[in-house]
Amino acid sequence: MQDFTSHIDSRICDDVRLNQVSKKFLNQIKTNAMNTNRLSKTLAAALNAQLTKEAHASQIYLSYASWISHQGFGGIANFLFRHAEEERNHMMKILEYIIKRGAEVHITAIPAPHDTPASINSCFEKIFEHEVENTKAIYALVKMSFDEEDWATWDLMQWFVKEQTEEETLAMTLMDKLKIAGGEKVSSMALYSLDRDLEKTPDSATSAQDVTAEKP
Ligand code: OFO
Asked: Which atom of ligand 1 is nearest the CA belonging to 54?
């Protein structure tokens, strides 16, 4: 018994020693490792915040899509569900970029989506407002990267600027379609055909800068 106890004791001592050695070794690696982060603290924080904003946008589309689906409009809901996925892709685009630049990603809580809209008309208006708000956040990032002369981030943000223009256009088109169909007073018949239209509507709108003489 005595032997067994001292054997265990010596194993524990070995483990502790091994642990200390590996900790020392890891710390050594850390201090010797080159700092590969190429994002400033400010930009990394702003990009992380934008990443959460994109996740929030996705939640907003998800909640509206679910609400509309519950009203029986599967086509509009499908369109919004697809868009929720697009917003999630935006989040991933920023997340991958932060990693690529050697900075740290911080995943935080996502704010709750907006309240349930009072009508489809107000739902489309809220989507538009949200897109415009997100565009402002993207513009702030463009300015920050410009001021810091971080051209890689600036370049990434150009993609987002273009994307936001498309999304605002798309949201505006939704509002216009509904306005023509009667706005708050839209008839069930008009909603029925809008529902069918949106089922097939492409996920992105053509923005002005993409239009050419050959492809008007
Ligand atoms: Fe992420 O594009 Fe809209 O919000």
From this structure: 1
From the CA of 79, how far away is ligand 1's center (Å)? 14
pLDDT of residue 203: 60
**Residue closest by Cα to atom 1 of ligand 1:** 87
Runs of H (alpha helix) within 72-119: 74-100
Q: In terms of domains, do 1 and 102 share one? A: no
Q: Looking at ligand 1, which residue's alpha carbon is closest to its atom 3?
A: 131
Give the pair of three-digit tokens for residue 33. 């490792």
Nearest-atom number in ligand 1 for the CA of 131 is: 4
Q: Count how many domains the chain has.
A: 2
Using one digit for the tens of pLDDT, what is the confidence trace for 32-66?
678 889 999 999 999 999 999 999 999 999 999 99
Q: Which residues line the pocket of ligand 1, CB cutoff 6 A?
A: 54, 57, 87, 90, 131, 134, 163-164, 167
Position 216 in a domain: no
Is the pLDDT confidence value at 82 over 80? yes
> Taking the chain, what is the end-to-end CA distance rounded to the nearest angstrom?
89
Q: Rounded to two decimals, what is the model's pTM?
A: 0.79
pLDDT at 47: 98
Give the type of residue at 30: K
Going from the C-alpha of 184 to that of each of 61, 67, 115, 180, the distances in angstroms are 20, 17, 18, 11
